[in-house]
Structure formats: structure tokens, C-alpha cells
């Protein structure tokens, strides 16, 4: 299906959001005519703070074919359900889209922290969205950027890396410590960073490209940015086994999966035993798979095909 010149009204928020920026970028790459508007006027700031500083010419949209709406997040700063729905109704009346689609992440913090009351509130809101808007699609994160060629593994600096932002999940620190300790015992050259402060994105990218294997550990939810970024940058993904179903997920010949410290140690032993050629083959398969299934264009196309057909 050709989506060029399809007119789309896209509602966003003023803080960076990986998932919605990915869909926005995918729509633009598919040739859609997209107008980006504040989702909630009193919440939207003076400037768009897109996570990758996307720079596309914005074009006014009249009589849009589709209005794509973001579902509510889990933070306390978001508006309540009534004004949020009221804003959607006002936008629908003002712009008169032919169809409205609500997009949400495929994962949620409630799966990890069900004791936090605000998460129950968000789960309720999600169920309400499904009633109000039948076109409600949960989608996973994806890879913004992919390398064109893989750096030879024989030239890479690190056998493995593990870069984690610790505030999102206290268990990340435990896993990072276990990786660092076992790597030292096995003689694996590792880069382990677990801190409340994130590394600069350029530094993070550089380490991924210089790592043979890199670890992804769940954060607020199971769907984690690193899960997609690691294979996209040419490293072998090592990730916790997730209860989520990802359409077109990475298979065992492309990545390592573990659950718990015992399986984690097993993965580290496998990495130790494998040759650079074997690991590079896994990385190459995962990179090609990422380009075929997990780019912004794929996420945007999924939404369009399911909502317009």
C-alpha cells in the first residue's frame, strides 16, 4: 500500500518519547503529510523536544485521513482522563479526521511494579481507551538508527558491555555487578556502566559498536530501548527472557536470552567459548533482521495498515 501524501494529524507531548518519535519519523519516511500538534495545549511547551532532534518541514493538514493519538503515560504529571478525552473530542471537532487511532507502548510498568497505585489507574485508562476507541494499538519500541556495516569482531575493544540507567529498576544494579564479577573471573574484557546518569548518546553508540556482545536488562517495563539498539549497532544482544510477545522477535541464532543469575552465568560461559567468527555471524543475522522488521517505517506501516484497511 502506498502511503505517500496520506494526511495525518499527529498529537505529541513536549518531552522526548522514544516510541512516539519513532512512529513520527516512520510516517515522514513513508511520505505521509504530517502535522504535529500539542496533544494537550496546557501541557505542551514552547518547543518540541524530540529525542533525536528530528528536523522535518511541518505542513498544515486539512481534513486529515487519520488522527494518531498517544495513550497516557505512567507519570504523575500527565492530565487526568477527563480533560484528556475532552481534548481529543475538541481536536476531532476542530480537524474532523476520518479516523482516530490511539497508539500505546506494548509494555507497562504495572507488569513489574503492580503495588504502585498509579499503575492501576493507568491500566484502567487503557481499558477505557479500548472502549472509547476501537482502533487501539500496542506497539513495541524499535531501532532508530542501524549501522551499514559491522565492524570486524577481531578489531573490537570489548568482549561485552552492559550500560544501564539504574533509577528505572533497582535490579539492574544487581545484574550489572554479577556481570562484572563473572567477567573478571572468566577473563572477559568488559565495559560495565550502571549509574543514575545516562551516558551521552554518542558515547553509548560508540561502545555498542566496539562491543561483541551487549546486555539489555528490563527497566520500567520489559520493552527496553537497548533491546533494539544493540543489534541495530552490530553487537550481539544478550537480554532477559521476557513475557511479552514481539512480532518478529530475535531468534536463538541471533541473540542470547537468560532469566536469573544462573542462566546469566551460562550465557557468559557461552560468550567465552565462542569464536569471533561465530559471534559476528549472530550479529550480522540480527542486524539484517532489524532492518527488515524493526525500523520506524515498520512501526508506522503497522499502524497505517491496521487502521486504514
Short summary:
The chain is built from nine helices and ten strands.
What does the overall shape look like? elongated
Give the number of helices.
Answer: 9
Rg computed from alpha carbons, rounded to a whole number of angstroms: 21 Å
Q: How much strand content do the residues show?
A: 15-25%
Structure description:
With 309 residues, this protein is of the alpha/beta class. Strands 2-1-3-4-5 form a five-stranded parallel beta sheet, with helices on both faces. The protein has a five-stranded parallel beta sheet with strand order 7-6-8-9-10, sandwiched between helices. It is elongated. The N and C termini lie close together (10 Å).
Features:
Rossmann fold, 39% helix, 309 residues, 2 domains, 5-stranded parallel β-sheet, alpha/beta, single chain, 10 strands
Blueprint (SSEs and pairs):
Blueprint: E1 7-12, H1 18-29, E2 33-38, E3 66-70, H2 81-95, E4 100-105, H3 117-132, E5 136-139, E6 158-165, H4 171-186, E7 190-195, H5 201-209, E8 211-216, H6 225-232, E9 236-240, E10 255-258, H7 261-273, H8 276-293, H9 296-308
Parallel strand pairs: 1-2, 1-3, 3-4, 4-5, 6-7, 6-8, 8-9, 9-10
Helix pairs in contact: 1-9, 4-7
Amino acid at each position: 500500500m502506498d502511503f505517500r501524501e496520506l494526511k495525518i494529524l499527529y498529537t505529541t507531548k513536549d518531552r522526548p518519547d522514544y516510541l512516539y518519535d519513532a512512529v513520527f519519523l516512520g510516517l515522514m519516511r513513508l511520505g505521509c503529510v504530517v502535522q504535529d500538534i500539542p496533544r494537550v495545549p496546557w501541557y505542551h511547551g514552547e518547543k518540541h523536544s524530540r529525542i533525536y532532534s528530528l528536523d522535518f518541514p511541518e505542513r498544515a493538514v486539512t481534513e486529515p485521513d487519520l488522527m494518531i493519538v498517544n495513550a497516557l503515560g505512567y507519570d504523575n504529571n500527565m492530565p487526568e482522563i477527563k480533560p484528556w478525552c475532552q481534548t481529543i473530542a475538541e481536536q476531532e471537532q476542530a480537524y474532523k479526521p476520518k479516523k482516530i487511532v490511539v497508539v500505546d507502548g506494548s509494555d507497562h510498568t504495572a507488569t513489574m511494579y503492580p503495588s504502585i497505585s498509579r499503575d492501576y489507574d493507568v491500566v484502567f485508562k487503557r481499558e477505557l481507551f479500548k472502549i472509547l476507541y476501537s482502533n487501539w494499538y500496542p506497539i513495541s519500541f524499535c531501532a532508530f538508527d542501524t549501522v551499514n556495516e559491522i565492524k570486524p569482531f577481531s578489531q573490537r575493544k570489548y568482549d561485552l558491555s552492559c550500560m544501564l540507567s539504574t533509577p528505572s529498576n533497582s535490579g539492574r544494579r544487581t545484574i550489572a555487578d554479577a556481570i562484572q564479577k563473572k567477567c573478571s573471573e572468566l577473563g572477559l574484557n568488559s565495559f560495565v556502566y550502571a549509574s543514575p546518569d545516562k551516558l551521552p548518546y554518542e558515547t553509548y553508540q560508540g561502545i555498542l559498536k566496539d562491543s561483541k556482545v551487549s546486555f539489555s536488562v528490563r527497566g520500567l517495563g520489559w520493552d527496553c530501548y537497548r533491546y533494539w539498539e544493540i543489534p541495530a549497532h552490530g553487537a550481539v544482544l544478550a537480554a532477559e527472557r521476557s513475557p511479552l510477545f514481539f512480532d518478529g522477535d530475535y531468534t536463538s541464532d541471533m541473540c542470547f536470552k537468560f532469566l536469573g543469575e544462573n542462566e546469566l552465568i551460562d550465557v557468559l560461559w557461552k560468550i567465552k567459548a565462542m569464536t569471533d567468527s561465530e559471534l559476528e555471524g549472530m550479529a550480522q543475522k540480527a542486524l539484517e533482521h532489524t532492518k527488515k522488521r524493526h525500523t520506524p517505517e515498520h512501526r508506522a506501516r503497522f499502524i497505517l495498515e491496521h487502521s486504514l484497511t
